[in-house]
Amino acid sequence: MIKAEPTITLPPPQHQALQRAIMNLESQDFAARLADYAGRPISRALRLMPKAATDRINQVAERVILNSLNIAIRSIKSHSKRRRSGRRRCSPD
Fold first, then answer.
1. How far is CA 48 from CA 39, 43, 51, 57, 76, in A?
2. Mean pLDDT, to the nearest integer, of 47-68?
């Protein structure tokens, strides 16, 4: 949890409720349950579609994810190259 100086003072019951909310939001279990809940309508819709349509949607989604990962990797590589080329070299004077 990130610690920060409070800018306002809350009464103890509200402060405790806020602390519990922060803990829940930062919990991976809560995030996983929330993601699962958000994905349920999509999963239901996909089950109702013909197999050919769901296969095509899965192919497109996989291609989008792989392209996004490739872009992220290239941006990391180009960033690290810029950092290396930006280093000053000592000349033997």
1. 15, 9, 9, 13, 40
2. 94
